[in-house]
Amino acid sequence: SRSLNLAVIPGDGIGQEVVAQGLRILSAVLPQDVKLETKEYDFGARRYHATGETLTDADLEQLKRHDAILLGAIGDPSVPSGVLERGFLLRLRFAFDHHVNLRPSKLLPGVETPLAGQPEIDFVVVREGTEGPYTGNGGTIRPGTPHAVATEVSLNTAFGIERVVRDAYARAQARPRKKLALVHKNNVLVHAGHLWTDIFTKVGEEFPEVTTEYMHVDAATIHLVTRPERFDVIVTDNLFGDIITDLAAAISGGIGVAASGNINPSGEFPSMFEPVHGSAPDIAGQGKADPSATVLSVALLLRHLGHESEAARIEEAVSADLAERVGEPARTTEEIGDALVARVTG
Amino acid sequence: SRSLNLAVIPGDGIGQEVVAQGLRILSAVLPQDVKLETKEYDFGARRYHATGETLTDADLEQLKRHDAILLGAIGDPSVPSGVLERGFLLRLRFAFDHHVNLRPSKLLPGVETPLAGQPEIDFVVVREGTEGPYTGNGGTIRPGTPHAVATEVSLNTAFGIERVVRDAYARAQARPRKKLALVHKNNVLVHAGHLWTDIFTKVGEEFPEVTTEYMHVDAATIHLVTRPERFDVIVTDNLFGDIITDLAAAISGGIGVAASGNINPSGEFPSMFEPVHGSAPDIAGQGKADPSATVLSVALLLRHLGHESEAARIEEAVSADLAERVGEPARTTEEIGDALVARVTG
Ligand SMILES: CC(C)[C@H](C(=O)O)[C@@H](O)C(=O)O
Ligand SMILES: CC(C)[C@H](C(=O)O)[C@@H](O)C(=O)O
């Protein structure tokens, strides 16, 4: 008999509420013969205030034993900006070598978009997750004086770029349109930009069926709002990926439905799945949060572990549920969970 | 009698056509007693291919003598990516210390936006122009091998941040809503981010009437497409400014109408005014380019030199012309110029 040994990190704010629904749908959809074991971990603001810890080596040892991780949200205004982001979220991505940060964008039928004319949006961003300007490499001299200088160093390696670029090509190859765009800023960030561009071109020789294009990140934001239907798969660096995936989420139904996977493709470490949204402390505990992004993250988790048909069932359920919501009064987090459970089991 | 001694750089592609119209409007609107002198300079792809030069020290000496610079566009596919951008555009911004890169976004009546519901958009981005990841500070080791490493260093100084932040506060103070947002990514780029945030807070004490907020760049892209009316003045770093001003242009009528000023507020060096769009080689020489962005850049130029009422007249003319175009067949570059000349003189 098979098993799924899941680490669950509800985290801060609405994290608790949305993860609870994500787990309900997961249990409901899993095949009978797959034994689900979950272990809940306490990370985020509470733990930080109580112990000063964000994520310890011992925590990583424990998390490592799981097949995958489901995260709600981490972050609270009571903690200084950067502490939990860098001490927990980024530390986990780096420690578990989550170099493929997968962020699909699909405008589902009936879902509102800020764009006019309800365009067809169905693309995936493959964001590099372990390099670029995210490595914490930088410093400040003469802080607090008029002569202060602060640096941030973007680190880019052939090793790190090649593996994520190859992953993106493989994803493009597996999709009907087989299109891949590299997004960077190689006319200004020439060193990193040329490394990305050269590797993108070289790896492309292994994927002759994939049509490629290069686009500057500034131009990409224009295309995302004027012609989003042109995109199929996008591969990009850590920071550009951060920026364009929030924009991508905004145009394809909002962060209420944006899912993501922090993936270690080799399986050496567990991959982590989380909604793109944050902890939304302003609405926490009120049953107002939309659990759809977490539920869709559960679908990505299942697909990653090889449960393709269950992943598809969840995605169809969310899609149908969103279509049904149009013009209806807002439902609670739990009511949406009820509806989704009914759909995936029905 | 007064004079305006202008350097004109038509540049590549559609640059020639749009600058020609910009100059017509400028001549038409200038007060009788202001003597306009223009000198045309040949920069861009032609000169690069002929001489290998992009912008020499001698060129800078000559340009320095003018009151201001009007640029069409620089860039051509025949020149490797980065050569003209860094060798001309960025070199000029750095040499003339254009630290205030001013990019207004206003959705004019009748102008198409990709956003649903025709939102009210009227904000200005003050983008830092001489620091950040744009300094060309970086390098590559072991290029072309699997062990290549490329770096890009973002340089941020208290001096450089404070002057642009103060400029932005003053602009916010002078506007009816008096709102200023700092856009950065201080939860990840903590060194640069904290320097920006600290200085933003400190300078704010001099402007008690200005309401401030901080926003991460990823969140800013969401707000720009979901609630653009919330923005009044935005101040941000060189790279984030590059990205969000293209998005801002896209939502407020497209790069056909987006103007910009590369400003040296002290007047030590001439400021440069240019449309945000590029050289668009695909439509060059066909009379299809919309000169409105260049004409609006002329308005920014006039305002910078103290000709406020002439600047306003140009902006009203462009606004009226755009409103009139709705549903009309496309006009040529020259026809649009004719209409604008008629309006500013009429
Ligand atoms: C919270 C922050 C560190 C994070 C990032 O910048 O990667 C977030 O914005 C995201 O996109 O997952
Ligand atoms: C052409 C390029 C160097 C430039 C920039 O990145 O600043 C352009 O995108 C701009 O916004 O003016």
UniProtKB/TrEMBL annotation, chains A, B:
Transmembrane segments: none
Gene Ontology terms for molecular function: 3-isopropylmalate dehydrogenase activity; magnesium ion binding; NAD binding
Coiled coil: none
Positions annotated to bind substrate: R93, R103, R127, D218
Chain ranges of the Isopropylmalate dehydrogenase-like domain: 5-340
Catalysed reaction equations from the record: (2R,3S)-3-isopropylmalate + NAD(+) = 4-methyl-2-oxopentanoate + CO2 + NADH
Location of this chain's protein in the cell: Cytoplasm
Entry-linked Gene3D superfamilies: Isopropylmalate Dehydrogenase
GO terms classed as biological process: L-leucine biosynthetic process
Annotated metabolic or biological route of this protein: Amino-acid biosynthesis; L-leucine biosynthesis; L-leucine from 3-methyl-2-oxobutanoate: step 3/4
Annotated GO CC locations: cytoplasm
Cofactor binding note from Swiss-Prot or TrEMBL: Binds 1 Mg(2+) or Mn(2+) ion per subunit.
Keywords (A to Z) from UniProt: Amino-acid biosynthesis, Branched-chain amino acid biosynthesis, Cytoplasm, Leucine biosynthesis, Magnesium, Manganese, Metal-binding, NAD, Oxidoreductase
Protein purpose: Catalyzes the oxidation of 3-carboxy-2-hydroxy-4-methylpentanoate (3-isopropylmalate) to 3-carboxy-4-methyl-2-oxopentanoate. The product decarboxylates to 4-methyl-2 oxopentanoate.
HAMAP family noted in UniProt: LeuB_type2 (MF_01035)
Subunit and interaction comment: Homodimer.
Identification of the protein by name: 3-isopropylmalate dehydrogenase
Organism in which the protein naturally occurs: Streptomyces nodosus
